[in-house]
């Protein structure tokens, strides 16, 4: 049967035809096999000269190489499975898990697993599947991103606003740390909010609670200033924000932190793409239409920020934002 392994009877016919001088194409037609199958059989199972192709020896070699059932890498009870389950609980994607394991164990295949294997264990793993182990906890399926609407009343002219076109060029190439992007994440009913800022080079994230969830300029200024001033001065370079009025006190922020604020063009979220992508990740923990930030403590926000900052990213070579920020900080101070 085409596609199945050659039988011992077929190998005997092959040997006779080969001895008679038939070509691989002719043998293939005789056996109903593709000529590439015949060529591969002769190449793989022939004995060293002068013995050449021997059908019974070839059949024995082929059977010895036949794949045997292998233990599953993610079988229940294995250390690798426990590591994968743990990382899935932390919100890591299968690709992030596979990339991080490859980075941590480059010379130990037994401690690595492909993201395809993780997906397979999730979707078709049967009774021992990761799906049953984690239920709805893991970040396997992503919801489609939707455009976030902002109330028109929160937009308008901001005095002394410096456009993004005047932002230093070093902020664009992501080699120098200390250039940030920020925005608000709005809670259920648009009645509360948090402020988020992301460092462009490392993707290091800070999540700032606002008193009572209020998104006033005074509250945003105080919260951001408190978080930013706790960082080393080398990370105080620039902040890119949208045109929301919550940043109306940007001059006070600059005086307090030394960070110059630049404003993206109206309705141009791609100019703050790093922050937009990070806010999508934050929404995994605080779903749209559900989260009321008036009831969420700063400790909870810091915990989510720690989870994001310790998650390996493909764009960072499967290093974590915390690792990259540390490397960049050391490199720019030595």
From TrEMBL:
Key word NADP present: no
GO MF entries: nucleic acid binding; transposase activity
SUPFAM superfamilies: Ribonuclease H-like
Pfam families registered for this protein in UniProt: HTH_38, rve
Cross-referenced InterPro entries: Integrase_cat-core, IS30-like_HTH, RNaseH-like_sf, RNaseH_sf, Transposase-Integrase, Transposase_IS30-like
PROSITE patterns in the cross-refs: INTEGRASE
Sequence segments annotated as region (Disordered): 50-74
Keywords of the record: DNA recombination
Gene Ontology BP annotations: DNA integration; DNA recombination; transposition
Domain Integrase catalytic: 164-329
Keyword Transcription: no
A cellular component term, taken from the record's GO annotations: cytosol
PANTHER family attached to this UniProt entry: TRANSPOSASE, TRANSPOSASE INSI FOR INSERTION SEQUENCE ELEMENT IS30A-RELATED
Name of protein: Integrase catalytic region
